[in-house]
What we know:
By secondary structure, this protein is of the alpha/beta class. Helix 4 (98-109) links the parallel strand 3 (89-93) and strand 4 (113-117). It is built from twelve helices and twelve strands. The strands form three sheets. A seven-stranded mixed beta sheet has the order 2-8-7-6-5-3-4, sandwiched between helices. The chain has a three-stranded antiparallel beta sheet with strand order 9-10-12. It has two domains: 1-8 and 257-388, Aspartate Aminotransferase, domain 1 (Alpha-Beta Complex); 12-253, Aspartate Aminotransferase, domain 2. Its cofactor is pyridoxal 5'-phosphate. Belongs to the class-V pyridoxal-phosphate-dependent aminotransferase family. NifS/IscS subfamily.
Amino acid sequence: MIYLDNSATTRQYDEVTELVYKLSREAFGNPSSLHTLGLNSSEIIRTARGRVAKALPAGGEIVFNSGGTEGDNTAIYGTARKLRRRGNKVITSKVEHPAVLESCKRLAEDGFEVCYLNVDKTGALKLDELEQSIDDKTILVTLMAVNNETGMIQPIVPACELVKNYNKEHGTKVIFHTDAVQAFGKMSFRNAPFDLITISGHKFHAPKGVGAMYMKSGFTLPAFITGGGQEKGYRSGTENTTDIAGLGLATELSYADLAGIQNKLCALSDRLRDGLSSELDDIMINGTDEIGLELDDYGKRCPSILNVSLLGTRGEVILHTLEQDEIYVSTGSACSSHKTGDSHVLQAMGLGHREIEGAIRFSLSEFNTLEEMDETVEKVAAAVNRFRRLGSFR
């Protein structure tokens, strides 16, 4: 099996699987209970929180939740609810994850003004539009760090600086949130300037159904889920001790050798890109070919994602052809893969139906090998050439 759909979900680290299994048998006490089992569970969560905190800016709150979708919803609705008396304008982009776009859509239905920034042909945000869009009604800017379909590293650092400068000049408090789901575990966030950061465990080898939100010191959100007051009242509900522990360990493992992971992803991405470009004509890289490894490398591509259009084919057909050889890829976001219609990200980049129809997303992890890239190139080339010869999709 060759798994190249890591932007949809990742295989857990073996150490994480072992820890989660062990704790599910030994640390099943409710963290809110006052007896020894409960106190042990509470200590496990405290340790995990410390592990996650080491990978994020110092001094903020780490609130555990169910993952990226809940985190994005909490950030957007929570900020809107808290700051509505100050203003009613939210700024986002046309290429965000559905968790952000649908939250903003609901805000618009509730009377908020939502401004959608355009992107250029590579999928990069247009900062001049952000500068022109911020005004005295603006309360929130929410922009993703790395695009989940193309891997584009968005200019969120200068975007955040732009927002902070506006706040200083006008005495306002526009909040900056970033969906870091595709970037966390692959890039450093230790010195990130953002007010709110969303992460999701299953994107970096932790269990599914667990994530966290970082809230910068000095700004906290009202509870999105109320009840027993867990997570210091920010997110009620009995904590998922075992998976939170897995999230903490996966964070520690990812950042223990971040440079090594980045170097391997670069080698894998280069091998796959070069192989496909060599073996196939009429292939187009969607986004940019230049790879970046830091948040400051905006306008470049995170090496974990390679999105290509195989012209003269249909991506879905190629996907299922590869599946027969146990090679697993994607045609776009897993969160919207069962919906009909072209990719909203590729549409925003100005691609036509033919380019979008032939798009395939390869998303890599450190578990992949160079030999897998070579085999994938061979199988993709065979599938594409076969269907092009048949002429079924021209």
